[in-house]
């Protein structure tokens, strides 16, 4: 055989081909081991991105021992002007967003590159909060050092400053002489408030949450809701008092609650324009209110016949506003239940027969289509349509077991959850009784006046909260927006909670919780959320001297243990209950410290 130029063509020697192939094989093997070193993880899990990549916390994983060795992280202090920092409702960012429907007051979280990596300091002169139940009536001025409400609402007796304390006389815009008499009148209008039929409530535009605070002694658990606005720190005052509250506003997005969940909703001159913008605000109240539930309104335009002169308006305008409100409520299948003086009560339809009228082509508001899930409520836009209750939901408010029996009865909506059943609900209930008993041995402050405001950061059915129901505390049950939607079950059993994504900051002020509990949160969410930022957020919302209970695999317990030193937490590792040996418990306590850094970060 010859080349085209006539020279003979010779076959290469076989040995000359073997050598390059052998080299290539060695290179491929080496490269595969290199990749394996990067991507392979231990059988127990993997190090979250913040630990693996942070220059100050390089991890060395010992595959033989199964423990993580992490270099300590030192977090600097934020400047003192961050003492009331609320990352997702930050007034410094308001100008970036629209004033339409006050949407600038909604959640707008900073991007990752703007997240703070510093510890939020307490105000100068901060003291350990006053204990419950005394805290309902007073708090330290230096803990919430804001005077706007004291000056602007002094004639309405929301609060008043006396020496080093704020005192809460129980007044409000529509009840300047005290909230108790106001609630007494309400109970006369709604007998269901007496016998345990009504258990959960929401107060929109809550002020300093005196209404919700008064209801606690009457067996009704209220979520007090208010935005961060010119009424400085309404929600912070509420939580400092030991009353459940959360930052929020009905604007362009649904509230972070499931449909058909609250037994009662309340607005006391909350200045929400209920009949404007297609009635979207009232439509949202309709969505979250349980069939047979009650909506209470006091203030304009109720009792306009006697009140219109003090509202800087005319009797004709107020009469027109009341008629528009009544027409809108009727179109949504509400009926006027009772009315006296300044209070009017409407009841949502107990069944779905009324909603058939929404099928008429020109009906307004129309029935919502099936494009959006009724319970979808995390950054879900409001829509000008009626969310009709699921016809499979057989039990209206009257049909539910009364409180406290409903706490331990498997709700019908548990069957809507993948893998959910009454049996799994009962098992979860029994398991948390055992766990709570064990926790009380590890943290003896649980059940004492040292712990009032509690958060279960990733609950399933609210079992932890149910197990602590006899203690002088309340629990905010958080269900991840990425987890199974179990929050409706939490509400059905008479507890409260909210949806949240722990990659973002929670809707509350700094230093508002005494105890944070999480069960497998990092195992479930560390592929999305950097552990460092979750822990910094926990530190922001935890009160000085407050506690953290972290239930995780040994892998994550070891990681948090080291990072917690940079948060100025004191931690200790504990064993879990018998039968849960693969899980470990980390008990931490936040130390009280004061700012030594006045420079902005």
UniProtKB/TrEMBL annotation:
Source domain of life is Eukaryota
Native source organism of the sequence = Rhododendron griersonianum
Q: What is this protein called?
A: Methyltransferase
One Gene Ontology CC term in the entry? trans-Golgi network
* Chief location of this protein within or outside the cell: membrane
User: Is Glycoprotein one of the keywords UniProt gives this record?
Assistant: yes
The UniProt GO MF terms for this protein read: methyltransferase activity
Membrane topology term reads: Single-pass type II membrane protein
Query: PANTHER family from the xrefs?
Result: METHYLTRANSFERASE PMT21-RELATED (PTHR10108:SF984), SAM-DEPENDENT METHYLTRANSFERASE (PTHR10108)
Query: Which residue ranges run through the membrane?
Result: 21-39
The protein's UniProt keywords, in alphabetical order, are: Glycoprotein, Membrane, Methyltransferase, Signal-anchor, Transferase, Transmembrane, Transmembrane helix
- Family statement drawn from the similarity comment of this UniProt entry: Belongs to the methyltransferase superfamily.
Major enzyme class: transferase
Q: What is its EC number?
A: 2.1.1.-
What is its subcellular localisation? Endomembrane system; Membrane
SUPFAM superfamilies from the entry? S-adenosyl-L-methionine-dependent methyltransferases
Record keyword Transmembrane helix present: yes
- Biological process annotations from GO: methylation
Coiled-coil spans are none
Question: Cross-referenced InterPro entries, in alphabetical order?
Answer: Put_SAM_MeTrfase, SAM-dependent_MTases_sf
